[in-house]
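anyone seen this seq b4? input:
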Amino acid sequence: MIDRDHKLPVKRQAQLLDISRGTAYYRPRPVNERDLALMRRIDELHLEHPFAGSRLLCGLLRREGHRVGRLHVGTLMARMGIEALYKKPNTSRKHPRHPIYPYLLRGLKIERANQVWAMDITYIPMARGFVYLAAVLDWHSRRVLAHRVSITMEADFCVAALEEAIARHGKPEIMNTDQGSQFSSLEFTDTLRHHGIAISMDGRGCWRDNVFVERLWKSIKYEDVYLKAYETVSAVRAGLAAYIDFYNTRRPHSAHGGRTPEEAYYATLPTSRLAA
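predicted toks r here
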């Protein structure tokens, strides 16, 4: 798909094909089957016990018969992009090009669509590998507004999902993310500022700010991904698109008294946006 001998730069070819630039440059490095099995089990345990760090996860894995050390568990967690969800001091130095923005949702009553959006990335296991899923979620209705699948965790596919959500649904007043490098990157934050969207970031590893997106990940994985063990990236893309459509339009949500996320979204969407 990408022609490295073409006169157009690889970056421009990726833009025209609507794929992540990181995907275009990526060279896959095989992961052995033992590590893939460990990563899938770590993912399952993380969904059940999101407070568990590498020490606890290592203990749980050993009790199940896995011979693994804490450092290796931590390495796999980093590769998967997961960490324990609990409040801890943020002692890391801020990168001069990646400023961390304040958390804007404390005490805010969120009661309508497009008031606050959230975005996050999760690891998606496959039968013989893994990919990453990024999703834009409307905080009030829990509706998934856009998503992208990528084989790397570069910022590009997050920006692509954000731009699709804005093009299709307008813009939120606030976008809330964690402090991950994809979301603190200039590419991502410049897109938000260009559209006049206020930027809010969670406290590092803080469970309260991730809970709605974590519930979405649990639904996607237990109701789709773990049941199907997708073989190819194209199968993941097609399967997740079908499940997310089901989640938005047909799956009742307890937070809305049995209404679907789509019904809850349009019920509180401003009239001007409905007319558009």
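The radius of gyration is 19 Å. Confidence is low (pLDDT under 50) at residues 88-96. kinda curious what u guys think
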